């Protein structure tokens, strides 16, 4: 089951006022539209509600490493995660770098494997286009 959103400031104030008026926790829950458990937890410690630090393993990358990773990607979008790791000196795996970039909104794109288009290729294509630009549809139908 998914976690519900925290109580808003308005809901907190409303709960306190309804509690001061003498309503039960069940009645307050029905009035506010939240579970009686969240009302109970809030009333037990109104000041400490929502301040508990989240548990879990700390992030491997620091904010400084995060900035260096993003800078390396912006400088050359064709870099692989292994190259980014080598450039930034990040102490994490390439998979962690890919996950970090995905969280920051960068999308990976696999490059197509094809030879580079050299200047002589460009000239040859342009020559071909100039020679064949006057061809009509009937001549092109005979090509294949």
Automatic annotation (TrEMBL):
<dbReference type="InterPro" id="IPR025246">
    <property type="entry name" value="IS30-like_HTH"/>
</dbReference>
<feature type="domain" description="Transposase Tc1-like">
    <location>
        <begin position="67"/>
        <end position="133"/>
    </location>
</feature>
<dbReference type="GO" id="GO:0015074">
    <property type="term" value="P:DNA integration"/>
</dbReference>
<dbReference type="GO" id="GO:0003677">
    <property type="term" value="F:DNA binding"/>
</dbReference>
<dbReference type="GO" id="GO:0006313">
    <property type="term" value="P:DNA transposition"/>
</dbReference>
<dbReference type="InterPro" id="IPR002492">
    <property type="entry name" value="Transposase_Tc1-like"/>
</dbReference>
<dbReference type="Pfam" id="PF13936">
    <property type="entry name" value="HTH_38"/>
</dbReference>
<dbReference type="InterPro" id="IPR009057">
    <property type="entry name" value="Homeodomain-like_sf"/>
</dbReference>
<dbReference type="Pfam" id="PF01498">
    <property type="entry name" value="HTH_Tnp_Tc3_2"/>
</dbReference>
<feature type="region of interest" description="Disordered">
    <location>
        <begin position="45"/>
        <end position="66"/>
    </location>
</feature>
<feature type="domain" description="Transposase IS30-like HTH">
    <location>
        <begin position="3"/>
        <end position="40"/>
    </location>
</feature>
<protein>
    <recommendedName>
        <fullName>Transposase IS30-like HTH domain-containing protein</fullName>
    </recommendedName>
</protein>
């Amino acid at each position: 089951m998914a976690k519900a959103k925290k109580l808003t400031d308005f809901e907190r104030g409303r709960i306190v006022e309804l509690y001061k008026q003498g309503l039960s926790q069940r009645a307050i829950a029905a009035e506010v539209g939240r579970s009686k458990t969240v009302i109970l937890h809030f009333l037990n410690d109104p000041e400490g509600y929502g301040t508990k630090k989240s548990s879990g393993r700390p992030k491997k990358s620091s904010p400084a490493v995060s900035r260096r990773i993003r800078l390396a990607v912006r400088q050359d979008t064709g870099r692989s995660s292994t190259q980014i790791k080598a450039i930034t000196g990040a102490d994490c795996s390439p998979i962690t770098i890919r996950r970090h970039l995905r969280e920051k909104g960068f999308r990976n794109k696999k490059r197509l494997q094809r030879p580079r288009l050299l200047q002589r290729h460009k000239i040859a294509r342009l020559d071909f286009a100039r020679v064949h630009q006057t061809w009509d549809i009937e001549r092109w139908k005979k090509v294949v």
